[in-house]
From TrEMBL:
It comes from Streptomyces althioticus subsp. attaecolombicae. Coiled coil: none annotated. Pfam families: CRISPR_Cse1. Residues 234-253, 542-586 are annotated as: Disordered. InterPro entries: CRISPR-assoc_prot_Cse1. Residues 234-244 have a biased composition (Basic and acidic residues). This is Type I-E CRISPR-associated protein Cse1/CasA.
């Protein structure tokens, strides 16, 4: 931490400018795979030749795309309805009005502007005129402990381009925790402001739809104002069309998409010289409660919160459904595909709401503006915070390609089979983990480590096959038969992994030992018996291929929209459902 005065800093750097409209600062990947850095004007002008925006982190990319969307929404003042969107989709030059719009607001896109610096608070200072390390805004170096090794042990200086990207990111994903209070902020107590939550996007399970080019990506996420389930206000506008924020907060609520995409969750002021940025002042800005914001925020799934409903005495209450870093996107596909009306409670409202951005794409197909075979590329990004949200533990980054037929509300059959297929994989991998635990028991070894390793290997082996199977649903006539194919593949893949575990068990496992079950009974457990249990469990989890009435044989399928057959619980050697197998009791 260093000390200076705002007056001295302003005097030393008078006349400096970094115009984000003309200076390159947005990292991109071109259609030919090469990387570049462009200005805002260039990004919109060349959007048809760009594959995507590139961030230092997936979360930075997500925040930058939302910034571009806020610009596009405001410049086009819409789209007002789906017909207007369709005209934009057909017009290669549809983003041309953005150029004039940005020129009109050029002054607000200067990172170093003395009166209205981009997404910053002019003259922001602490009572002691402290200027802090850039570690406070660079998310790959959380305060006190490096997260990535790209910058060790400190962030001493950033280029203006880097600083601009991190300013966008800090509003979206900054950590919570106790922060130094800013002068003239009435929330300061003893020089500090106590936790007010993360940046707005930090509480989301971020989802956006990617197209083949950046132009397509922007348009696919450019939701029309006549979209059911989302609220739009004529007063909605982004941060640069508001007065620059002062210290503290006026306690206002978000007015709509443009406001949320540029929500000023922090108060920031960069300290710089002619060669770049060397320090920052960072404090809390406008906190925003996430309860029941599903009518304003389209880029996340939502979940019912019984705890909040009980606390507030009203129902339903929805909170953002955050990503689990331990689960690939396909394993959480249920949150992306369906509002789960079958789980609707007596108090009204489904238990989950899928991201409205996917609902919007489904509507584009339903109304004939996109092909039924259109493949949705869902980009998933988010953060898992630790220690009372004061540090970043993990960053989530994944993509899932799926046919739009999965999103159709009129016929949920495809979606239900895709969800059931992911559950097939989950049950089968659980069985594989049980085999590893049983093999460990045969020698008296610790069980948790081998079990976790086996499960990780199982999900890894099924990851790409499931993604390929899901994409192939675009050409599938019979989703039930398609799931049968998947179950056979899961059985073969997990069966082979089980064979390897048994083969590698060693002589001690084949000899075995006395095992006492939860009911106090004893038996001689060895690798052979563990293998028998494994085969029986796998059959119960996936059905016996070719047998009448099994989930794989085609028998017992539901008629119409009744959904997939209900899978049986996985048997266990310590329950009444345990498979009958040769056992040597002692």
């Amino acid at each position: 931490m260093t000390k200076t005065t705002a007056l001295a800093d302003a005097t030393a750097n008078e006349g400096l400018s970094f115009d984000l409209l003309s200076q390159p600062w947005v990292q991109v990947i071109r259609s030919d795979g090469s990387q570049d850095e462009l200005s805002l004007l260039q990004v919109f002008d060349q959007a048809d030749g760009l594959r995507r925006v590139l961030g230092d982190l997936a979360t930075q990319e997500f925040a930058l795309v939302r910034l571009l969307l806020a610009i596009a929404h405001d410049a086009l003042d819409g789209p007002a309805d789906i017909e207007e969107w369709a005209e934009l989709w057909r017009d290669p030059g549809c983003l041309a009005p953005v150029q004039a719009y940005l020129e009109e607001h050029r002054e607000r896109f200067d990172l170093l502007h003395p009166v209205a610096p981009f997404l910053q608070t002019p003259g922001l200072r602490t009572a002691k005129d402290e200027v802090f390390s850039l570690n406070r805004i660079v998310a790959d170096v959380p305060a006190g402990e490096p997260f990535f090794s790209a910058r060790l042990p400190d962030v001493g200086r950033l280029t203006f381009a880097e600083a601009a990207r991190w300013v966008v990111h800090v509003h979206a994903y900054d950590t919570s925790g106790i922060k130094t209070g800013m002068a003239d902020d009435d929330r300061v107590k003893g020089g500090k402001v106590y936790p007010l939550g993360t940046g707005w996007a930090g509480g989301l399970g971020g989802v956006l739809v990617e197209g083949g080019t950046l132009r397509e990506t922007l348009l696919l996420n450019l939701v029309a104002a006549d979209t059911e389930g989302l609220g739009f206000s004529p007063d909605d506008r982004p941060a640069w069309r508001r007065e620059p924020c002062g210290p503290g907060s006026d306690g206002r609520s978000a007015t709509g998409l443009r406001d949320l995409y540029t929500w000023q969750a922090r108060r920031v002021r960069l300290h710089h010289d002619a060669d770049g940025v060397h320090g920052v002042v960072l404090g809390y800005g406008d906190p925003l409660a996430s309860r029941n914001m599903h009518r304003h925020e389209p880029m996340t799934a939502w979940r019912r919160s019984p705890a909040q409903e009980k606390k507030l005495g009203r129902s339903p209450v929805y909170l953002p459904l955050e990503h689990d870093p331990a689960r690939s996107a396909w394993r959480g596909i249920a949150a992306l595909l369906a509002d789960r009306p079958e789980e609707t409670s007596s108090t009204g409202g489904p238990s989950r709401l899928r991201p409205r951005i996917l609902e919007w794409v489904a509507r584009l197909v339903t109304e004939g503006h996109l092909s039924r075979r259109f493949l949705v590329r869902a980009r998933v990004a988010g953060v898992r915070y630790g220690t009372q949200q004061s540090v970043v533990d993990e960053v989530v980054d994944d993509r899932l390609v799926m046919p739009v037929v999965l999103l159709q509300a009129q016929d949920p059959t495809y979606a239900l089979q895709a969800i059931a297929a992911a559950e097939d994989a989950d049950r089968a991998v659980r069985v594989l983990g049980d085999l590893a635990a049983d093999l460990a028991r045969t020698t008296g070894s610790e069980e948790d480590g081998p079990k976790a390793t086996a499960r990780a290997e199982g999900f890894d082996a099924l990851d790409q096959p499931y993604r390929d199977w899901l994409s192939a649903m675009a050409e599938t006539v019979d989703p039930f038969e398609h799931r049968d194919t998947w179950q056979r593949q899961v059985r073969q893949t997990v069966g082979r992994l089980g064979d390897r575990l048994v083969a590698a068990a060693g002589d001690a496992a084949w000899e075995g030992r006395i095992h006492t079950d939860t009911k106090g009974g004893t038996l001689w457990l060895n690798a052979g018996l563990a293998d028998v249990w494994f085969r029986a469990r796998l059959t119960r989890a996936l059905g016996d291929a070719g047998s009448p009435g099994s989930t794989s044989s085609g028998e017992g399928r539901p008629v119409g929209d009744d959904g997939p057959p209900t899978p049986q619980p996985t048997p266990s050697p310590d329950t009444d459902d345990a498979v009958t197998a040769p056992e040597v009791h002692v």
